[in-house]
Amino acid sequence: MIRVLLVEHTRLVRGAFAALLAREDDIEVVAEADGDGDVVERAVACRPDVAVIGVDSREGEEIAVRGELQARLPECRMLLMMASTTPERLRRLLDLHAAGVISTDAPPDRLVHGVRKLVRGKRFVDPEFALAALDAGANPLTPREVEVLRLTADGTPTREIAERLCLSAATVRNHLSAITRKTGGRSRIDAVRIATESGWV
Among 27, 17, 26, which Cα is nearest to 104's? Predict the structure, then answer.
């Protein structure tokens, strides 16, 4: 049997996913959680093969407490569910110990397929997310430029960005000029729009 821990903060949605998985002869939902701080301990107690975690459940229980789940249960694979994503966010999630990512709008059998694929030691990325990532193209921004642009998008003033990133104000302005040039934007606001729509931030 494939042992599954199901984490979703909405009880009705969680029940629907549990019922879907329970229909399969080779899958057993051994525990459920609402993503309210007990995911890792619940997983350690029931030792699932796969933890299916809704990313909206406090950002996937902070992506299973930033790797603690994988550190304590290396045999447990993590499948994240989300309504939507961007190519950049998808890459970040896969870098944060997730073995798979699936859309909550996917057909029911795709969740079952994803769980089985993870148990076989493979990765699973929802085809719709994978196609969007391929269509978006490579991110021309450096990691530091992405940090600067995210803070700019939040309305953070240049001096505060400099303080938070331990940079000089002049360096931040240089980064913003480079970002505007690389994105082809006419202004910082335009650069934020283009980068967001392209999935680079």
Answer: 17
Spatial contact of 52 and 111, defined as CB atoms under 8 Å apart: yes
Q: Which residues contact 54 (CB under 8 A, 6 or more apart)?
A: 7, 8, 9, 10, 13, 14, 35, 60, 80, 81, 82, 104
What length is written for the chain?
201
**Sign of the CA dihedral 119, 121, 123, 126?**
negative
Tens digits of per-residue pLDDT, 41-93? 888 899 999 999 887 655 544 565 557 788 888 899 999 888 877 666 777 77
Q: Mean pLDDT lowest for which of 32-36, 74-78, 120-124, 169-173?
A: 32-36
DSSP category for residue 139: -
Residue 75 and residue 90: Cα distance in Å, rounded? 22
Backbone phi, then psi, for 13, in 5-degree steps? -65, -45
Alpha-carbon distance of 22 to 189, in angstroms, equals 48
What span, in angstroms and rounded, lies between the C-alpha atoms of 24 and 71?
29
Q: Read off the pLDDT of residues 1-11 as tens digits, 9 standing for 90 and up.
A: 999 999 888 88
